[in-house]
Specification:
The structure is a homodimer. By secondary structure, chain A is an alpha/beta fold. Helices cover about 45% and strands about 15% of the residues of chain A. Among the domains of chain A are: about 105-420, Trimethylamine methyltransferase-like (TIM Barrel, Alpha-Beta Barrel); about 420-450, no CATH class. Chain A has helices at about 15-20, 45-65, 70-80, 100-105, 155-165, 190-200, 210-225, 230-235, 250-260, 285-305, 330-345, 365-380, 400-420, 425-430, 430-435, 445-450, 465-470, 480-495, 500-515; strands at about 35, 65-70, 85, 95, 115, 125-130, 130-135, 140-145, 150, 240-245, 250, 265-275, 310-315, 315-320, 325, 350, 385, 390-395, 400. In chain A, strands 10, 12, 13, 14, 15 and 16 form a six-stranded mixed sheet that branches. Chain A has a four-stranded mixed sheet with strand order 3-4-2-11.
Chain lengths: ~525, ~525
């Protein structure tokens, strides 16, 4: 095996170095998308991969997958030569079986990597290959902070999380539903969410998937920012299509997928699996099912618009066999992710998985152990897009600003680890070893002085002070220190907020007002 | 790249399965030494490895390494053809320079792997190859528990930690100085420590290295347990020889190394490096220096007794460039460990590094993040012996029973992750996918029922209950739950304590009484 992780690369971009020189940051610090120099960890042999692929074909051909409440998609599949068996006496719900190899062949038109554009071109991200993009937590209805404890999330919390993501160098992507703003009617909150991302951040964004027309609203808002022609030819949103595992696509998800694919926008097609509930308890079984599920969604998007960008996704959790509760940061999902990453690579597709997953109620040791048992194997496996990379608590029920800044600090370290070893002359440091010699120390040697500022990652939250100093400073654990940190970041945000063209802002606001005015409030 | 991590292997040994059947354990649960099915992560190319090796040769040949206060070793090196330059006007302190390739050639007689015997043969461990042995924290003078906070450690604490290690399935080794029993005089405490390991546990042990005669006491006590002839032909102790980095071996460590090597007992020859203090700030520089240092100690042991067992070690930490404090669980040491593991593999030697390293004062999120950023890359790198694998806090100043049980829980998960994916017919679970089909659930299917007990690792400490249930149970974080757990384990210990032959026990006690009586108390 040859490994080539030896290129010394700058850890921060120029903006940051300029900021370090002048003392006061004039713009946010931003790490470039992670470029994985370490070799991807492979756990399945060629034979193992072929076996899983064969099982997935059997699932597609013999068992089939369901589409529920989507007559358009069923007709499309029928036209394309799939076997359609209507079920439950409905004309919009059917079991679809696919001729051998059909789905895999359809998937071949998808790009192996693509650029998602941000409204600030400096924040564009490449998704695929050896790149990994980190995006924040997605979906929790609750919000926990050190000050207030746990409560339902609001749009104000949503804005806080968008701002913290914007301010976090290791988060490359603004994400999507960083929490559910439950103070806004369900049928209208997507406007506020998309607007918050577009206005408060200039990083790439995710769109709404809770109804096809909300997906269309997302695309329409993006057109106001990027221009309609640009949106038709370029990816400006990535959205999360969860498969209704096992083996089912419902009309909402399939409908949103259709809107995005037809508009040339990226979807993460993601089997959502708690092993033992939505898939078998064994990783080998999960992989075959998830591969079949992902192929069907990806193939559907490619059928509608060949070449449109897509990400092969897998969300995997395990389960407490004592209580049935989902568990996170456990070894079995790590194995699933590593295997699925290999299967995605064999299809030449970008892969999404992992994240700061954990079942802990608070950002304690459990939260951190589980988060790292999820993030590190996922990065090692070679994920290209990591949703939930920061801020997740309590099995995804809770978003936490403290957890977000804690995780983001670790993600910055992952950048350095994946950067590999600098073996330049400076990296070899033979001058230092000659200068210091046996029995000396390196604290003041020339090499140390030359590399003083960039030698080690300086954690924003870890406390390495003496016990006595730590006591004097209030014996704070990391949860408390993270509370102090995120509130300082929010205070600093206003001076660093990304400017938005007033005309664009006005166009977005008018669009939202008009659309919101066209519908009554609804709670679904 | 071919990966072969697909063998379904039993997760627990027979004792455990018997215990599960009968309900009440009649003996402790013990995991077999970790067998790493995943491919080792390589970060250096052939060219990179050759460059580091060349730099290490330059260090050995041109810069040289010091021996201080060890006239015997200096004479040995001189006889062997090394260049000796006495320094500081002393006849027992010298700079030694080695002809090119001399050290590497001497190291060739060391075994690539070896068995360390425990007094219970079922607990013997293999050290080397694809095996990884986990041993507890080593060295802290302080002890922190949830109940008592932080204070100096005592022999009673030492015994608690030995018992908890014995009771922890994922800890294969009883370790050595699990804490410093500061209530016992320095020159006598090694008797109590070695006796505690031999009496309270039946797992393999580490010996004393704080003086050559204390190493000899360790060997003599082992002879009482295993028999003198057996000890001469088999490894029954592994002891930690820290290099006095940079590039110096002192008479104490070198003298203890001599005792163990001459008695055919294993040493971990381990450069102790806080980058920026004892070695350059750059990983590439650390690697060359540490390779030179390790080679000298390993070669010395092989010169004294060719073929005696030895472990190539590296302890690596980074440093806060703001305060000079050592930092742990950071990315730079992870890179050093991955590179050093490759260098050790090229020498066909077992490798030691990693551990539950962290700088946190309490077992909070910081402790857990840093621990995992140390343990996971180290296991991935292919370490064969992980000292400090559980129980470490505050940069190694503090041993913690809560942290020990928390870490041990994670180490059990590492076993499963490294076990790879079961692709047997049962692992593939196609029967389950056929049975459940689209839209169903797997909770009660036949496959789930068949695999109910072994499907997922059930954490001993993670809480996956609902928020409401967790609140009802007292809103305990993991630190608090770990406190409850280790005290229950101590309560259960007596019924599971390993029996010891009364004659052997009496011989050990007599030996200790006689030796202690022969010397006054001393505080160094």
């Amino acid at each position: 095996m040859t490994a080539a992780a030896e290129t010394g690369r700058g850890r921060r971009n120029r903006t940051d170095r300029r900021a370090q020189r002048t003392g006061a940051p004039s713009s946010i610090e931003q790490l470039a998308v992670l470029d994985r120099n370490l070799a991807d960890v492979n756990i399945l042999s060629e034979e193992g991969l072929a076996l899983i692929e064969e099982n997935a074909e059997i699932i597609c051909q013999e068992i089939g997958l369901n589409i529920s409440e989507d007559a358009f998609a069923i007709q499309k599949w029928q036209e394309h030569g799939a076997d359609v068996e209507f079920v439950d006496g409905k004309d919009d719900t059917a079991r679809i079986r696919f001729p051998r190899g059909m789905l895999r062949t359809l998937c071949k038109t998808a790009p192996s990597s693509f650029i998602q554009h941000a409204r600030n071109p400096a924040r564009n991200v490449e998704i695929g290959g050896k790149k990994t993009v980190f995006a924040p937590v997605y979906g929790p209805p609750f919000y926990r902070s050190y000050d207030e404890g746990r409560r339902y999330a609001t749009l104000a919390d949503f804005e806080t999380l968008v701002k913290l993501t914007y301010m976090s160098p290791a988060l490359h992507h603004s994400g999507g539903t960083v929490c559910e703003p439950v103070d806004i009617p369900v049928n209208k909150r997507h406007f506020d969410m998309v607007y918050s991302h577009l206005k408060l951040s200039d990083k790439p964004i995710m769109g709404s998937v809770t109804a096809p027309e909300r997906a269309q609203d997302t695309v329409d808002m993006c057109k106001l920012v990027f221009g309609a022609d640009f949106v038709d030819q370029n990816c400006v949103t990535t959205s999360l299509i969860n498969v209704n595992s096992p083996l089912t696509y419902d009309g909402i998800m399939n409908g949103a997928l259709r809107v995005y694919a037809e508009n040339n926008q990226a979807c993460i097609v993601s089997p959502f699996i708690i092993s033992g509930a939505m898939a078998p308890v064994s990783p080998g079984g999960v992989m075959a099912q998830a591969l079949a599920e992902a192929m069907m969604g990806i193939a559907y998007g490619q059928m509608l618009r060949p070449g449109s960008p897509v990400i092969f996704g897998t969300f995997a959790a395990s389960m407490s066999m004592a209580s049935g509760a989902p568990t996170f940061g456990t070894p079995e999902p790590a194995l699933i992710i590593m295997g699925m990453a290999q299967l995605a690579r064999r299809m030449n597709l970008p892969f999404r998985s992992g994240g700061s997953l954990n079942a802990s109620k608070v950002p304690d040791a459990q939260a951190a152990y589980e988060t790292m048992m999820s993030i590190l194997p996922s990065v090692g496996a070679g994920v290209n897009f990591m949703l939930h990379a920061a801020g997740w608590l309590e099995g995804g029920l809770v978003s936490s600003p403290e957890k977000l800044v804690m995780d983001a600090d670790q993600l910055a370290m992952v950048h350095i680890m994946q950067g590999g070893v600098d073996l330049s002359e400076n990296g070899q440091a033979m001058d230092a070893i000659r200068e210091v010699g046996p029995g000396g120390h390196y604290l003041g040697c020339d090499h140390t002085n030359r590399n003083f500022k960039t030698a080690f990652y300086e954690s924003k939250l870890a406390n390495s002070a003496s016990f006595e100093q730590w006591e004097i400073e209030g014996s704070q654990d990391m949860y408390q220190r993270a509370n102090t940190r995120w509130k300082r970041m929010i205070n600093e945000y206003d001076a660093l907020a990304p400017a938005i063209d007033p005309g664009t802002d006005e166009a977005l606001r008018s669009f939202i007002a008009e659309r919101k005015g066209s519908m009554p409030d609804a709670m679904y």
